[in-house]
Amino acid sequence: MIRVVLVDDQTLVRSGIRGLLDLTPDIRVVAEAADAIEAPGVLAGAAADVLLLDIRMPQMSGIALLESMRGQLPPTILLTTFDDDQALLDGMRAGASGFLLKDISLERLAEGIRRVAGGATVFRPALTERARTAYERTSGPAPPCTVDLLTERETEVLALMAAGFNNGEIGAALGPSEGTIKNHVSSILAKLGVRDRVRAVLRALELGYI
Length: 210
Fold this sequence. Notes:
Layout: E1 2-7, H1 11-21, E2 27-33, H2 39-44, E3 50-54, H3 62-68, E4 76-80, H4 85-94, E5 98-101, H5 106-117, H6 125-139, H7 152-162, H8 167-174, H9 178-192, H10 197-207
Parallel strand pairs: 1-2, 1-3, 3-4, 4-5
C-alpha cells in the first residue's frame, strides 16, 4: 500500500482527492494538513511514501515548504490549479519529484503517485518543453555546456526520465536490460554533475538537452 499525505488549504479539495484515491486498490491518504505550517507535524507521524502538496496556500506556499525542509520530506508531487511554467521550474529547483494539475483524471493521478513512490519523476514532456522555453525567456539562453557531452542513447534515456519512466520502463522502451539503463542513468548524473534524477531533468532543461 502506498501511503500518501495530502496538504491543501481547501477542505473540499482534500475530501475529493481522498475520495478518489480510496477507489484505488493500492493508494491511501493516511493523513492531511490544511496548510504548510501544519504539514511538518502531520508528516512526522505519518510514515508517508508520497506527499501531495498544494503550491498556493496562505501563510506559506508548498514550494516554500519544500525549500525549508529540503531533503527531509518524502517524494513530493506538487498540485496546482494553474498551468504555471515558473512554478514548475521553482518546484523542480526545490526538489519536487512531480508536478500535476488538479483537474487530471484519477488514473493519471494514481499513475503519478505510483511512479514517484517507485523513484521516478512525473514531469511530462509537454511540461518540460514549455518549462525550458520559460527558463530561456526569464533567464536568457542556457549557458554554454561545460559538462561532458551525452551520447545519443543517454539523451534518449534522459528524455524518458523527464517523462516519468523508471529504469525498467526505459529498458522496455529502448531495448537494453534494466541494469544497462541503470548504468546509463549513473553516467548521465555524473556528466551533468547532479546527484538525483530530478536535478538531472532540471539541469538538462537548462542546457537544452530536452
